[in-house]
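Appendix C: a fully annotated inverse folding record. The material below is reproduced so that readers can follow the format used throughout the book. The structure is listed first as tokens, followed by the designed sequence.
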């Protein structure tokens, strides 16, 4: 980057201040002209001359964009004046004023016809930072972040404004003037706001059609559909409590199956052959079982099952098997007392006493076996 020492800082500062004042005057002038043009556009709409009104609206839109671009350039000029010491004392371009300098150099050829001070500002900045830098900034070929503001590029663009924006201007102008106006439906179809409003629920006429309750349609058909609500019920319509699932219906009679079961299982499904409550005969205590008609499913217990136990008598002692008298190993010769019956338990006296002689004899026999 070449450095030129011929920059006239006082001239640059003076033209920056003049440019700010001229930009303010242009902003005020163009805003007043736009307000007057709105009245003319309203007259065109009232006289059914929408095509001419749209052309005038494009002029207003371009003037509004130009006013916004002037506001940005005014801000950049004010920033350079506030940090003018960075231009005087530093030879290279400081990051604090890089964005403002680049945007002013880029916009100078485009607004020089309205603001002549920008030509002088552009020449002084080119002398300060070099022709190569100025040419790259004018063509927006510098590397990021030294780029021209995309907002400024859009405001000073020569492209025609979008048709949707023109229709919105027409709607607002007709609304402010109190004139009925029907926008072009082909253009408004692209409007995202209009499309979103059409998706809203009309609570005044038809009520809310919420689909919060889903019922099982059929055990064979796995599809679900929302319940149909009566008309004019409002958004708070409550369809009633949920019916019990199909798996709980006649669970002791027909078996039942969930509504979410696969169709193949539902088609081949038959109730299991389990005993029901009405198959039990209270008098005999036996269970009557229907024959199993589904070979793919388990059958019921055998018909010769044990009878149901009667009421248990808590006064009688249950019968337990007696332990074996002979045990393998070194306890083969040892004998154990047999289990006492209920009659022996009732009889007390000497039978409860221990026989010490018998215990001593057994102990001697064990000692002799261990000695061998």
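Designed amino acids, in order:
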């Amino acid at each position: 980057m070449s450095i030129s020492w011929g920059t006239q800082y006082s001239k640059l500062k003076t033209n920056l201040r003049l440019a700010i004042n001229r930009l303010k005057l242009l902003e005020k002038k163009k805003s007043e002209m736009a307000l007057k043009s709105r009245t003319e556009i309203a007259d065109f709409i009232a006289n059914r001359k929408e095509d001419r009104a749209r052309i005038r609206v494009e002029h207003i839109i371009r003037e509004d964009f130009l006013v916004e671009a002037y506001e940005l350039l005014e801000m950049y000029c004010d920033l350079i004046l506030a940090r003018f010491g960075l231009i005087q004392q530093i030879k290279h371009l400081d990051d604090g004023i890089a964005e403002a300098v680049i945007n002013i150099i880029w916009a100078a050829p485009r607004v020089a016809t309205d603001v002549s001070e920008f030509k002088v500002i552009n020449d002084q900045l080119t002398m300060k930072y070099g022709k190569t830098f100025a040419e790259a900034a004018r063509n927006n070929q510098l590397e990021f972040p030294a780029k021209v503001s995309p907002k400024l590029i859009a405001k000073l663009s020569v492209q025609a404004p979008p048709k949707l924006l023109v229709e919105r201007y027409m709607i607002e102008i007709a609304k402010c003037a109190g004139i009925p106006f029907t926008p072009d439906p082909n253009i408004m179809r692209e409007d995202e706001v209009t499309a979103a409003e059409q998706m809203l629920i009309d609570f005044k006429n038809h009520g809310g059609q919420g689909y919060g309750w889903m019922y099982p349609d059929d055990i064979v058909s796995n599809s679900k559909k929302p319940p149909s609500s009566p008309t004019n019920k409002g958004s708070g319509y409550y369809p009633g409590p949920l019916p019990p699932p199909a798996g709980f219906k006649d669970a002791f009679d027909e078996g039942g199956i969930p509504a979410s079961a696969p169709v193949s299982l539902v088609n081949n499904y038959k109730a299991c052959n389990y005993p029901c409550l009405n198959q039990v005969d209270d008098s005999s205590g036996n269970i009557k079982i229907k024959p199993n008609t589904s070979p793919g499913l388990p059958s019921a217990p055998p018909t010769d099952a044990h009878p149901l136990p009667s009421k248990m008598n808590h006064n009688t002692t249950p019968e337990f098997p007696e332990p074996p008298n002979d045990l393998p190993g070194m306890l083969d010769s040892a004998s154990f007392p047999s289990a006492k019956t209920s009659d022996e338990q009732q009889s007390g006296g000497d039978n409860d006493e221990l026989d010490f002689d018998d215990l001593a004899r057994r102990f001697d026999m064990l000692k002799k076996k261990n000695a061998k």
